[in-house]
Amino acid sequence: MRTSPLAMLVLLSGCSTKSFITPAATVTGAAVGGIGGPGGAALGAGVGYATGELYTLRDENKQLVTAITTGDVKGIVAAQMKGQEGKIKEVTSSIWTTLKYAALAILAILLLPLIWTRANHKKINAIFKDTENGKADKTVPKSE
Fold it and tell me: Are 144 and 122 in contact (CB under 8 A)?
């Protein structure tokens, strides 16, 4: 019954378990050191506290190192990208130029039959009229 309020306090406090590591290590160290007497309990509590703090600081240091490293990497990448921007723009413009020339070539290839047909429409009409009347043997008149 006495452990219920303590368990509720620990479980419902909303704190992470990392905040309980230092006090738990201190109590555990004191209990183990208590076997050797009051001096051992004091020494055990000190060792337990130091161990708990080191564990807590280790996690904080990981976060600090990650933050510093991530910031440095982002800065280095940004500096390198500034040097690469000119090359990237140059490559992009050459790609666009190549695409424009390819589009013009395709347009010219597609327009050639239309231009040729337009230029020779009198010959084509004469051939059509001759085949329609059944006179395919005749020679085609020259265009004017």
Answer: yes
Rg of the chain, C-alpha, whole Å: 44
CA distance 27 to 81: 54
Report DSSP letters for 53-99, one per residue: HHHHHHHHHHHHHHHHHHHHHHHHHHHHHHHHHHHHHHHHHHHHHHH
* Assigned domain for 10 exists: no
pLDDT in tens, 24-43: 777 777 777 778 788 888 87
Give the domain range for residue 111.
16-133
Q: What is the pTM of this model?
A: 0.34
Residues 6+ apart with CB under 8 A from 85: none
Q: How far apart are CA 5 and CA 11, in angstroms?
A: 10
